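Bumping with the actual sequence this time:
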Amino acid sequence: MSKKTSYRKRPAPTAPGKPQAAKATDRSQHYKTAGTGAEKTGKPQPSKLFAIAPGNYKYMGAGLVLMVIGFALMIGGGSDDPNVFNEEALFSFTRLTLSTILVVAGFAVEIYAIMKRPSPPKTPKIPADEEE
């Protein structure tokens, strides 16, 4: 026979000679909503386990890819001969403008992926003739 362990908040320490306050109990339990109401469960729901919903990881991957492409476009513009300065290669549209736009867009997608809330699961509609 196993005994269920409950975790309760400890009462605040009191000075000697003063009466103790009534014990406070921690009633924070997870509830799962069902069609008939709330039902207690001992475990948190899967969406409560992670800070970011599993569906948001594809947005995070897309943002990472945008940032990597943007940083890759910034690479280059150097010269083999230190006495030669190639202004067109260094200050090109791709290296200065396009790559910066891609990096900023990648950060924007990352922020969106972190901030986006998952949509609630859709419940199937039961036709009127199948209801009990």
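The tokens above came from a reply further down the thread. The mean pLDDT is 76.
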